[in-house]
Design goal:
The protein is mainly alpha-helical. The protein has one domain. The protein is built from nine helices and no strands. Helix 6 runs parallel beside helix 9. The longest helix is centred in the middle third of the chain and has 38 residues. The N and C termini lie far apart (about 90 Å). About 15% of the residues are buried.
């Protein structure tokens, strides 16, 4: 037989009040902290997702010359395409490279405690250059390279937030202006690398198109 007295005592108002009191202790503070962490992680993941997808894309500009400039014909079209090509890869690409390089450098400054600033810059530009080179072989491979450091930073933060030192990072950032020559050299190298890769890709594509047209 069920012990009704025991059930009644368990469900007494005082017991319920005590239970709800314990459950409600610091409820809003804890939930608010959870909300902040959740939103921050999602925003960071969105930023990283857009970052590595853009960096790993073979056609980083995603421009269709024929679609945007249908009025160009004959010699004028060739001249316009040539100058647009030069603008994209001699002016725009170095600027985009600098943005990617800057973002990775800041992230690595948080991660690398023992590395010098110059070593950090070398590692950052290596990731950028390797991702661009890999994108001409496989964009999936390039994505894996590009997202490696940003998500590693997130993992370290979740496991050990005390690992990071803002003061140390700020001290390293102060040293960056003295290394501007190195930064420019790295950007020039990556720009030349991209320029060569584009020319090779265009040459190979042209050969295959001609071969296909001849077969047809």
């Amino acid at each position: 037989m069920v012990n009704l007295d025991f059930i009644n005592s368990t469900l007494s108002s005082s017991t319920l009040q005590t239970s709800f009191g314990v459950l409600g202790k610091n409820f809003f503070g804890n939930v608010f902290r959870l909300l902040i962490y959740t939103v921050a992680m999602v925003l960071y993941a969105i930023l990283v997702w857009n970052f590595y997808r853009k960096l790993a894309k073979k056609d980083i500009f995603n421009l269709d010359i024929k679609r945007h400039h249908t009025f160009r014909v004959g010699f004028l079209k060739k001249i316009a395409d040539f100058f647009e090509f030069l603008f994209k890869y001699l002016i725009a690409f170095p600027f985009i490279t600098f943005i990617f390089f800057s973002m990775l450098s800041v992230l690595l400054l948080f991660l690398s405690k023992s590395q010098t600033v110059q070593q950090t810059l070398l590692t950052s530009m290596t990731i950028v250059a390797a991702s661009r080179l890999a994108s001409y072989y496989s964009e999936d491979l390039a994505k894996d390279l590009a997202k490696m450091i940003p998500f590693a930073l997130l993992g370290v933060f979740l496991v050990d937030p005390s690992f990071f030192s803002i003061d140390v990072v700020l001290e390293k950032i102060k040293l960056l202006p003295s290394l501007w020559i190195v930064i420019v050299q790295y950007i020039i190298f990556t720009g030349i690398l991209e320029f060569i890769l584009v020319l090779i890709d265009m040459t190979i594509g042209s050969i295959f198109r001609r071969k296909f047209e001849n077969e047809v």
